[in-house]
Fold this protein.
Amino acid sequence: MLTYLAKRILYVLPVAFGVSLFCFLLVHIAPGDPLTSVLPPDASQAMQDELRKIYGFDRPLPVQFGLWLWKAVQGDLGTSIATGRPVAAEVWRAVGNTLLIALLATVIGFVLGLFFGFVAGYFRGSFLDKFASMLAVLGVSVPHYWLGMVLVIVFSVQLGWLPPGGAGPGGSAAWKWDWEHVSYMVLPAITMSVIPMGIIARTVRALVADILNQEFVPALRAKGLMDFGVFRHVVKNAAPTALAVMGLQLGYLLGGSILIETVFSWPGTGFLLGNAIFQRDLPLLQGTILVLAMFFVGLNVLVDIMQGLLDPRVRRR
Amino acid sequence: MSAPLVSMENVTVRFRGAQVVHAVNGVSLTLEPGKVLGILGESGSGKSVTLKTLLRLLPESRTDIGGTVAVDGRDVLALNPQDLADYRGGVASMIFQDPMLALDPVYTIGEQIAEAIVRHEKIGRKAAMARALELLELVRIPSPERRLKAYPHEMSGGMRQRAMIALALAARPKLLLADEPTTALDATVQIQILLLLRQLQRDLGMGVIFVTHDIGVAVEVSDRLAVMYAGQIVETGTVRELIADPRHPYTRGLLAANLHGARKGERLEAIPGAPPALTEPPTSCSFAPRCKHAQERCRAALPPAVALGEGRVVRCILAEPSLAAA
């Protein structure tokens, strides 16, 4: 187990390097000059060159990447071209905001997804299965920005129960854990939770159905186990795969959703990313993508380790 | 004569589904305590289904079971869920064909055996683990302490089947049901497992029903044999009687198809044709289409069950006294 752990953690280094290189290049491949948005249209060539020099865009790409990476490792992601503020601070504030709704969405999506998945898998072909599967398909296929708008229309405009958007009175800087603020999380979190709920429900349904068809299930009954005893075995067998899917979904949720955060004006990573793209704010864009990608890498390691703990066959690979 | 450990009376099993399958059609059998009954038959003859009926392991929603099944004084078909769970593993337990599939891959062998012990006996986990170790020693697994913490995929096929046997013996059952326990194993390992089963059966005084398609295996372990064809027992008797004097043409065919004693270059005897699809319950002799002795009567009605003595029954008109000379 210890060698497995060490191996998993060592594998992260090349992956993280590759990811950072990709983040850096991706932004440079895209057409357009980051400076055009901040410079006045009639800026002289000298002025352009000067600014380019300040931001370091005049140097060869490998050097730029090296410098960027070296600073990034130390926690400095440069300064935003659009606002002039440090990228790291901007990203971390947005990450904190996204975490709020993402974690709530995770709880809703995972609990409902697991519940529907187990119910549908256990009672395959029954009315319950059809109902749960229908919800799962709806969850996966409904466009979530559309769902977000419908929820706003129903619960904010028509019923007036929940605020339609924003991060509460005083913005995200004045966040407090009271209903006045928390009520702002509810609609975006529900909207976000729908896709992971559907994906997890479908995955778990297939897993449970597959496990129940395996021969060790009658063998468990043959030694006298009743429903709960068998359920324990089904859960442990389903857990590694379910965890892998849940880890990925958590990654997506932490990345925030440009569309959902835009619909609800929620100042999270998705919102930030959207702004960075439209303003061609290269350092901000790179920094945000890098942080989100590292979240993904970290989550995957965590899932790998948990899979190894749960399934002895994984450790041998 | 003591009360039988197992008594099946005219048992029928029918699977409902897109197509109805009459898997077992009127099976009656008895097993005395401490004896071994071998059920012999080819794939689809209903031998495994008969065995699973004894533990009520068939999917209840799609299965109709008729007749009576009594084990150790219990009416198995009438047990409520709690009593059924106590009965499974506690009174009767089963060894499955492929231990790789029948063991849970994500729990250790020790955990799986201890789970069965804790389920049936009022002892703690630690004591159960100690019992599990004794059981692994009983089935003669090498270095049992290490195997207790091993996962199924970390063991060889023979060792897995030994672990499966230990698991089946966990709660000291009176009846052991073995569903082709050597079919998935290498030939050399097969013999070891057979010898082990035979010895455990004698030492622990268990009744055993052993299902196999291998006539050599059946003869090796059994006191009595029952030959199944198309969901019916066509002939039953002691091993000696069946080998020395097979009466049913199907039994004769099975014995003749055996490789033992065959010479190189000699054509092997085989039974022509294939067993029938069991979409309808039989109304005539199921073997008639493949039988060279078949007569008009065989195709018109079910053959009589001719009793030839204590526990010796043949379902064939050839066994009738008037035709016995034929």
User: Anything to note?
Assistant: The CA atoms of residues 136 and 252 of chain B lie 40 Å apart. Residues 1-91+173-260+270-283 of chain B form a domain with the Rossmann fold fold (CATH 3.40.50.300). Chain B has two domains: 1-91+173-260+270-283, 103-171.
